[in-house]
Amino acid sequence: MKIIGNTIFITGGGSGIGRGLAEALHKLGNKVIISGRRKGHLDATTAANPGMQSVELDIEDPANIASVTSKLIQDYPKLNVLINNAGIMEVDDASGHVSEELLTSTVTTNIMGPIRVTSALIEHLKQQEDATVVYNTSILAFVPLALTAVYSATKAALHSYVLSQRYMLKKSSVRVIEIAPPWVQTDLLNSNEEPRAMPLADFIRETIEALSVDTDEALVKSVLSLRSNPGPNEGIVVNRFNDMMLQPQA
Ligand SMILES: NC(=O)c1ccc[n+]([C@@H]2O[C@H](COP(=O)([O-])OP(=O)(O)OC[C@H]3O[C@@H](n4cnc5c(N)ncnc54)[C@H](OP(=O)(O)O)[C@@H]3O)[C@@H](O)[C@H]2O)c1
Question: What domains does the chain contain, in order, with CATH numbers?
Fold first, then answer.
């Protein structure tokens, strides 16, 4: 995608990967508007990046999405990039009872949220000469982590939606790009200090490089083999991956 000269709206831009992408794209000279539920995180991010704007948004709430996106279009008529980044991840147990609360919040946030936000902005984006919708799925969309079965399933569903939407928009000015991160050091599952996870700064640098070329999937090198896994024998890699992840740490 064109990496400069855009007006970019990022969900979940007050922390982790969203904040990292927001800051990198802001430094490149794009107009960046971040969103999320925690005003304190949004304010801290905009204060550290003069010129960046923020708006409170809960992507679990369809009415909130409708009002915030309609004001966004009014305030930023040149808006041409949407980055669907916000998401939640919780540990579940697919071999036993799955809590109704976890199921509803994960599906509502991780699938319905990005679909609703995109749906609210798509007609505006189609009117732009050059527009992009980015979805942050996960490498777990391709190789599920059994300990987070619902989360992994939402990301696989989002990947499927991306494929359909890209096809449906192929004759429009809107490109659809997927980011499928590996484990990255963020607040997600308290992974900030996790040695097995990729440092956030490295992930952002490699992802911005990957976004800068004409691509459908902006992937960092470490996920390429897992990304290639799906196929009739995918269970072999899934089992090996989960055995490795569930091994007690020395
Ligand atoms: N870190 C990883 O290892 C990893 C790997 C693969 C994919 N990802 C994906 O990367 C994305 C960002 O996660 P992260 O790792 O950067 O963790 P994070 O720091 O916890 O970021 C998640 C962001 O989503 C926002 N969010 C959550 N629920 C929301 C809601 N209902 N409405 C609006 N915003 C909401 C949060 O903001 P508020 O709480 O302020 O609303 C937060 O800024 C997620 O989609 C995640 O699935 C992460």
Answer: 7-246 (3.40.50.720)
Does residue 144 have its Cβ closer than 6 Å to ligand 1? no
pLDDT tens across 45-101, in order? 999 999 999 999 999 999 999 999 999 999 999 999 999 999 999 999 999 999 999
Average pLDDT over residues 170-189: 97
Q: Tell me what percent of the residues of the chain surpass a pLDDT of 70.
A: 100
77, two tokens: 């008529």
Determine whether 161 is an active site residue.
no
Split at pLDDT 50, 70, 90, the class of 229 is confident
Q: What is the pLDDT of residue 52?
A: 98
Ligand 1 binding pocket mutation candidate from 55, 85, 155, 227 (most atoms within 8 A of CB) = 85
Q: Which phi and psi angles does 133 have, rounded to 5°?
A: -115, 125
Query: Separation of 18 CA from ligand 1 center, angstroms?
Result: 7
- Cβ within 8 Å of residue 57, ≥6 positions away: 11, 35, 36, 37, 64, 65, 68
